[in-house]
Amino acid sequence: MSDQSSEKPNESTPLPQEKPQSASSRAPGAGRPTDFTQALADLICSELAAGVSLRTVCAGEDMPCMRTVFYWLRTQPLFLHQYARAKEESADALVEDILDIADNGTNDWMEQHDEDGAAVGWRFNGEALQRSKLRVDTRKWIAARLKPKKYGDRLSTEVTGADGGPIKVVPEAIKALSNEELKFAIELHRKLAAASARAEGPTE
Fold first, then answer.
1. Which of 73, 11, 87, 6 lies closest to 36 in space, CA to CA?
2. Is 204 helix (H, G, I), strand (E, B) or coil?
3. pLDDT exceeds 70 at position 10
4. Maximum C-alpha span of the chain
């Protein structure tokens, strides 16, 4: 009789397998920071205020992914306020970018060469100019919406009366009247209007 067991494994009992995680069950940004800290919040907002996009900020391996940042914005009211302030401040950084782009004419002209490689002149680089224009217009559009009062295309002036009500124009002569004089003037105006209506007769 052999010492070796001839018993087969129970095929009805499956071997334990690792259950795949769904996208919703996985922790966002695996390998990246997921716990909120004020230090991370300050770093993110500092970069945003300098005009760096959130996607670029989150590209670093030591930074949380965008999904994590959006989760913090929903669950951390103070961070939401800090984030909004940083995005508003980024409008100033974008305007600084516009000045740098507009002043940079490095690629406006391209040197042309003949078949032998000798320089024969310069050619205007329209593609570079159009690209610069797109960069400027994009930053102008975003800055105008982040800070409309400062960089918006339209300036509106609101003029209101006391407590936000309509403006009341009162001539100085009327303001000088006493209450009795004002009542007399109103009554006189009413009588004159009635007399004028009677003199004109019925309208056809």
1. 73
2. coil
3. no
4. 140
Q: Are 143 and 95 in contact (CB under 8 A)?
A: yes
What is the reported pTM? 0.55
In angstroms, the first-to-last Cα distance of the chain is 133
Q: Which two tokens stand for residue 75?
A: 């669950």
Higher pLDDT, 198 or 38: 38
Q: Give the DSSP H or E segment for 121.
A: strand 119-124
Q: What is the pLDDT of residue 48?
A: 96
Is pLDDT at 91 greater than 90 in this prediction?
A: yes
CA-nearest of 161, 162, 165, 185 to 173 is: 185
Helices (H), the chain: 38-49, 54-57, 66-75, 77-103, 126-146, 148-151, 172-175, 179-200
What b/e sequence results for 49-87 when a residue is b if at least 16 CB atoms lie within 10 Å of its CB, and e otherwise? Answer: bebeebeebbeeeebbbeebbebbeeeeeebeebbeebb
